[in-house]
Here is the input.
Amino acid sequence: MNRDFSRDFTGYSFIAAALMLWLGWILIPVHIDIFFRPGDFSSIGNHLSLYIWMYRVHIFGMIVTVVALTALGSLFPRVSSRVLVYPGIAVISTGMAASALGAAFFYQFGASGAVELQGMSPEVIRDYGASLKLDTQYAGCFYRFGRVFTGLGMVFLGAGLIRSKLLPSWTGFSAMLIGIAAMAVIMAFPDRENLYFPIFHLQSLWLAATGFAVLRSGLSLSDS
Here is the structure.
């Protein structure tokens, strides 16, 4: 197969996004539940550098996902399926941006709290966590809406991929199923983070698999 810069950039962007999203999340040493607990700050402090860097990798993975999807959209010819693909990409990008804002809150206040609360009494630590409760609710809301929007966008994108037939049909069908599952779980069980994790793993796998599908496809814009 002749190499093509636009196709290669798109495919490898998908794979990079999958690795950054998934590995960043898996390697975060302390995962915050709905709210910060007093013991979270000492745990973060024990792995502060890893906590900071893995959150950065995870958040950058969300942005690289937007890059990959935008690149994929640019590869689509003037076919009717673009009316599904482009809105899907736009909604997923909105969802990723919202999720990144939510993640940035836990990244910032987890790290800064671990540093500022070193040597403080349990009462001070408890009060600090309580002072973040309202802001944490907003951050959690960003996360939840981000996941719902990402799911909705995947439904549109998946339908466009199926209609276009430019990539294998499984890329479209799996995107739609993952998107529907994400919306259903988050809207039905908004406070059950553990129920969403299998969907997150599937989304990351979808990104990587779609990246390989793009690399093997005939999609092309460039002449070389």
The radius of gyration is 19 Å. The chain has a mean pLDDT of 90.
